[in-house]
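Narrative of accomplishments. A recurring question from our advisory board has been how the design workflow behaves on a single, concrete structure rather than in aggregate. To address it, we present the structure tokens for one chain from the evaluation set, followed by the sequence designed for it. No filtering or post-editing was applied between the two.
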């Protein structure tokens, strides 16, 4: 058996796997569930300033009815690390910029790791989001730290250098929210390393008490509504949850009849594909990017198409 083979094997340095086990080196990894209670975090939320906040639920027991009920959590589960995935122009970067500005404007501290766009272009986008949200930009400026990883390919290729630099940023601003746009840039053209890179970043954010967002850029050839992104399912298998952004171009009269949009129009959607931390909506929701550049989550896609069908009937 493979396990026995590992127990018998010794590496080039004469290191014995069996001895480590027999000497109890890894005993600290074994804990009773009750012993974890002291260090387990309570379920709380980090508001994003979008309708996504109402799509995560806390499950509570209602003593009056004797049944469990779900209540909107009011944001992403605090301390969770989430993967945002979608093809180009589905609203991923718009969403995280809005989230960062909203969080910073409410006193939170943000580390924004930009891998795609140089920092000065982010500055313009953040300022516009602040105006649209009606927030004082001076407060936001003081609460966001930018790590510009777009400038150096050598820097991006060494993930351990990246996390050591992120540690310095945490010390500078005591951040509690970290956004990486996009994590795919750290293993571009080297997708065999995707799992290793994502695992290192995930564990690092968890160890530093961060709520985290990884943006994963999806190839257009991949199935649009799936969670699969560059690097396969490496990201989705490791993170606490995945949020899928998608868009549908209205190209035919059939599309027009289903969605009630003109030919050439775009229907954007968002879906929580999974979350291991708390309950969540299982449905696909219609999402728009308003003229002021803000994300709005409108209604269930099923309701949207039903309303379109009823209007057509009348």
């Amino acid at each position: 058996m493979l396990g026995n083979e590992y127990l018998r094997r010794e590496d080039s340095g004469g290191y014995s796997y069996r001895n480590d086990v027999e000497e109890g080196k890894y005993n600290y990894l074994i804990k009773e569930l009750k012993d974890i209670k002291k260090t387990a975090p309570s379920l709380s939320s980090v508001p994003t300033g979008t309708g996504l906040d109402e799509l995560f639920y806390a499950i509570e027991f209602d003593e009056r009815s004797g049944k469990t009920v779900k209540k909107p959590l009011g944001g992403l589960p605090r301390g969770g690390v989430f993967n945002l995935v979608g093809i180009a122009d589905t609203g991923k970067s718009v969403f995280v910029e809005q989230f960062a500005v909203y969080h910073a404007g409410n006193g939170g501290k943000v580390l924004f790791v930009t891998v795609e766009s140089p920092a000065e272009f982010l500055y313009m986008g953040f300022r516009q989001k602040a105006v649209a949200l009606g927030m004082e930009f001076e407060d936001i400026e003081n609460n966001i730290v930018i790590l510009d990883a777009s400038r150096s390919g050598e820097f991006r290729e060494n993930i351990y250098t990246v996390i050591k630099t992120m540690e310095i940023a945490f010390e500078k601003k005591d951040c509690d929210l970290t956004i990486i746009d996009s994590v795919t840039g750290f293993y571009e053209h080297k997708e065999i390393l995707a799992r290793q890179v994502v695992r290192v970043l995930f564990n690092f954010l968890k160890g530093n008490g961060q709520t985290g967002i990884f943006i994963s850029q999806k190839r257009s050839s991949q199935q649009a509504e799936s969670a699969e992104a560059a690097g396969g399912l490496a990201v989705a298998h490791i993170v606490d949850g995945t949020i899928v952004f998608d868009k549908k171009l209205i190209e035919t009269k059939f599309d027009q009849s289903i969605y009630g949009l003109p030919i050439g129009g775009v229907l954007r959607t968002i879906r929580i594909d999974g979350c291991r931390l708390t309950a969540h909506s299982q449905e696909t929701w219609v999402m728009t990017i308003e003229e002021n550049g803000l994300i709005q989550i409108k209604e269930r896609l099923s309701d949207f198409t039903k309303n379109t069908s009823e209007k057509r009937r009348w």
